[in-house]
Amino acid sequence: MGRLGTASAAIGAVVGLFCVVEYSLSCHGVTPLGSACSAEPIAPPGNDGIAFALLAVILVLASLGTYVGPRALFYISALVGAFIDLVEALNCSSIDTEWLGATALVVTVSVILSILAARQRSGVSEQANPMNLPVFG
Predict the structure, then answer these.
(1) Could you count the other beta carbons within 10 Å of the beta carbon of residue 56?
(2) Confidence grade of residue 75 (pLDDT, cut at 50, 70, 90)
(3) How many angstroms from the chain centroid is the CA of residue 125?
(4) pTM for this structure?
Protein backbone atom coordinates (compact mmCIF):
# COMPACT_ATOMS: atom_id res chain seq x y z
CA MET A 1 0.00 0.00 0.00
CA GLY A 2 1.36 3.38 -0.99
CA ARG A 3 1.28 6.70 0.78
CA LEU A 4 -2.14 7.56 -0.59
CA GLY A 5 -3.57 4.26 0.63
CA THR A 6 -2.06 4.76 4.07
CA ALA A 7 -3.40 8.31 4.26
CA SER A 8 -6.83 7.18 3.09
CA ALA A 9 -6.98 4.37 5.65
CA ALA A 10 -5.88 6.62 8.49
CA ILE A 11 -8.26 9.44 7.58
CA GLY A 12 -11.13 6.99 7.11
CA ALA A 13 -10.57 5.51 10.57
CA VAL A 14 -10.31 8.96 12.18
CA VAL A 15 -13.44 10.19 10.37
CA GLY A 16 -15.35 7.09 11.47
CA LEU A 17 -14.28 7.61 15.08
CA PHE A 18 -15.23 11.28 14.79
CA CYS A 19 -18.73 10.28 13.67
CA VAL A 20 -19.10 7.72 16.48
CA VAL A 21 -18.06 10.31 19.08
CA GLU A 22 -20.40 12.83 17.48
CA TYR A 23 -23.30 10.40 17.77
CA SER A 24 -22.50 9.45 21.36
CA LEU A 25 -22.25 13.13 22.37
CA SER A 26 -25.60 13.73 20.76
CA CYS A 27 -27.18 10.78 22.57
CA HIS A 28 -25.96 11.96 25.96
CA GLY A 29 -27.07 15.54 25.34
CA VAL A 30 -23.56 16.95 25.65
CA THR A 31 -23.18 20.33 23.97
CA PRO A 32 -20.10 20.34 21.75
CA LEU A 33 -17.54 23.10 21.94
CA GLY A 34 -18.58 26.19 20.04
CA SER A 35 -22.16 25.06 19.44
CA ALA A 36 -24.40 28.10 19.30
CA CYS A 37 -27.65 26.24 19.92
CA SER A 38 -27.74 23.33 22.34
CA ALA A 39 -31.26 22.40 21.22
CA GLU A 40 -30.03 21.09 17.85
CA PRO A 41 -28.24 17.73 17.92
CA ILE A 42 -24.88 17.19 16.29
CA ALA A 43 -25.90 13.84 14.78
CA PRO A 44 -29.13 12.68 13.17
CA PRO A 45 -31.84 11.80 15.71
CA GLY A 46 -33.79 8.54 16.00
CA ASN A 47 -33.29 5.58 13.67
CA ASP A 48 -31.24 7.70 11.27
CA GLY A 49 -28.83 8.39 14.12
CA ILE A 50 -28.47 4.67 14.79
CA ALA A 51 -27.82 4.08 11.07
CA PHE A 52 -25.29 6.94 11.17
CA ALA A 53 -23.46 5.33 14.09
CA LEU A 54 -23.48 1.85 12.49
CA LEU A 55 -22.15 3.25 9.23
CA ALA A 56 -19.43 5.07 11.16
CA VAL A 57 -18.38 1.83 12.87
CA ILE A 58 -18.33 0.05 9.50
CA LEU A 59 -16.21 2.91 8.11
CA VAL A 60 -13.69 2.46 10.92
CA LEU A 61 -13.51 -1.31 10.38
CA ALA A 62 -13.25 -1.03 6.59
CA SER A 63 -10.56 1.64 6.85
CA LEU A 64 -8.53 -0.42 9.29
CA GLY A 65 -9.06 -3.49 7.10
CA THR A 66 -7.44 -1.77 4.14
CA TYR A 67 -4.07 -2.06 5.90
CA VAL A 68 -4.13 -5.86 5.58
CA GLY A 69 -7.05 -6.67 3.29
CA PRO A 70 -7.74 -6.37 -0.42
CA ARG A 71 -7.94 -3.07 -2.27
CA ALA A 72 -11.70 -3.57 -2.66
CA LEU A 73 -12.07 -2.43 0.94
CA PHE A 74 -11.24 1.09 -0.26
CA TYR A 75 -14.37 0.98 -2.41
CA ILE A 76 -16.40 -0.25 0.56
CA SER A 77 -14.96 2.55 2.66
CA ALA A 78 -15.92 5.09 -0.03
CA LEU A 79 -19.44 3.65 -0.33
CA VAL A 80 -20.00 3.73 3.42
CA GLY A 81 -18.75 7.33 3.55
CA ALA A 82 -21.20 8.25 0.79
CA PHE A 83 -24.02 6.67 2.80
CA ILE A 84 -22.97 8.70 5.85
CA ASP A 85 -23.18 11.86 3.75
CA LEU A 86 -26.59 10.76 2.47
CA VAL A 87 -27.95 10.18 5.99
CA GLU A 88 -26.71 13.62 6.98
CA ALA A 89 -28.19 15.25 3.90
CA LEU A 90 -31.59 13.71 4.61
CA ASN A 91 -31.49 15.01 8.19
CA CYS A 92 -29.82 18.36 7.57
CA SER A 93 -32.71 20.35 9.05
CA SER A 94 -32.36 18.69 12.45
CA ILE A 95 -28.57 18.87 12.79
CA ASP A 96 -26.51 21.81 14.04
CA THR A 97 -25.25 23.52 10.89
CA GLU A 98 -21.66 23.95 12.13
CA TRP A 99 -21.29 20.24 12.81
CA LEU A 100 -23.18 19.27 9.66
CA GLY A 101 -20.71 21.20 7.50
CA ALA A 102 -17.67 19.89 9.33
CA THR A 103 -18.82 16.28 9.21
CA ALA A 104 -19.84 16.48 5.56
CA LEU A 105 -16.45 17.97 4.67
CA VAL A 106 -14.31 15.36 6.42
CA VAL A 107 -16.46 12.46 5.22
CA THR A 108 -16.32 13.73 1.62
CA VAL A 109 -12.53 14.05 1.83
CA SER A 110 -12.40 10.49 3.14
CA VAL A 111 -14.58 9.26 0.24
CA ILE A 112 -12.40 10.99 -2.36
CA LEU A 113 -9.18 9.64 -0.85
CA SER A 114 -10.64 6.12 -0.69
CA ILE A 115 -11.57 6.21 -4.36
CA LEU A 116 -8.15 7.55 -5.35
CA ALA A 117 -6.41 4.92 -3.23
CA ALA A 118 -8.50 2.12 -4.73
CA ARG A 119 -7.62 3.22 -8.25
CA GLN A 120 -3.93 3.74 -7.53
CA ARG A 121 -1.57 1.26 -9.14
CA SER A 122 0.91 -0.24 -6.73
CA GLY A 123 2.82 -2.44 -9.15
CA VAL A 124 6.30 -1.89 -10.51
CA SER A 125 6.39 0.00 -13.79
CA GLU A 126 7.74 -1.78 -16.85
CA GLN A 127 10.77 0.48 -16.98
CA ALA A 128 11.68 -0.11 -13.31
CA ASN A 129 11.06 -3.86 -13.44
CA PRO A 130 14.24 -5.77 -12.46
CA MET A 131 13.62 -8.24 -15.28
CA ASN A 132 14.44 -5.49 -17.78
CA LEU A 133 18.05 -5.09 -16.70
CA PRO A 134 20.59 -5.04 -19.51
CA VAL A 135 22.38 -8.31 -20.07
CA PHE A 136 26.06 -8.09 -20.85
CA GLY A 137 27.39 -11.17 -22.55
Answers:
(1) 26
(2) very high
(3) 30
(4) 0.79
